[in-house]
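Support request from a user on the community tier.

User writes: "When I paste my structure tokens into the form, the page sometimes reloads and wipes my input. The last time it worked, I copied everything first. Here is what I submitted, just in case something in the input itself triggers the reload:"
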């Protein structure tokens, strides 16, 4: 019994050093070689930090591209989904209100053309990206408000589109903050 006890104490100490010291330090070291040197990718405009590329922000003004709804109010401190089931009555009302808002601000849009991510919140509530389809369905609204041609806006969306990882993993996506910064730069 004594040998089992000493063996378990040694294993605990080895795992403690490995998982609480060596692993976190190696991850921090590797992160120094990533974009933002492990501190996240900050986006700036006119020399000021306006946001982080990996955290969604709320855009509700009609002259901007809107991102995915957030159950956490885009608050990174309380990142979470709503945990409401697909048959929950209040959840269905929220989704319907989001559909109605999109239809109201995007005339000519049909309910069946709305991608799911534009009316449902994500698990984290902080998704910074939307699908290319989600961005393109907003082009006519923004073009009309900003007096731009839809072709100019479509070119911006195409430039801001991020392809799947290694061309294989995940869908093509558009970062909403980057897209809106490019939109503001175009309008200047």
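"...and here is what came back when it finally went through:"
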């Amino acid at each position: 019994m004594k040998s089992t006890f000493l063996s378990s104490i040694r294993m605990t100490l080895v795992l403690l050093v490995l998982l609480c010291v060596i692993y976190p330090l190696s991850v921090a070291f590797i992160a120094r070689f990533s974009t933002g040197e492990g501190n996240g990718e900050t986006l700036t405009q006119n020399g000021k930090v306006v946001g982080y590329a990996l955290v969604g922000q709320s855009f509700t003004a009609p002259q901007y591209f809107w991102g995915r709804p957030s159950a956490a109010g885009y608050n990174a401190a309380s990142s979470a989904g709503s945990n409401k089931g697909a048959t929950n009555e209040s959840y269905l009302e929220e989704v319907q209100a989001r559909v109605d808002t999109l239809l109201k601000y995007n005339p000519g849009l049909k309910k069946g053309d709305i991608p799911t991510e534009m009316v449902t919140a994500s698990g984290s509530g902080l998704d910074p990206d939307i699908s290319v389809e989600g961005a393109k369905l907003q082009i006519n609204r923004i073009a009309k408000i900003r007096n731009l041609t839809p072709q100019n806006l479509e070119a911006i969306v195409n430039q801001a589109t991020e392809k799947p990882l290694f061309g294989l993993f995940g869908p093509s996506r558009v970062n909403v903050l980057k897209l809106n910064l490019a939109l503001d730069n175009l309008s200047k």
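Agent notes: The reload is a front-end session timeout and is unrelated to the input. Helices lie at 2-31, 89-105, 132-136, 139-146, 150-160, 176-187. The first helix runs from residue 2 to 31. Escalated to web team.
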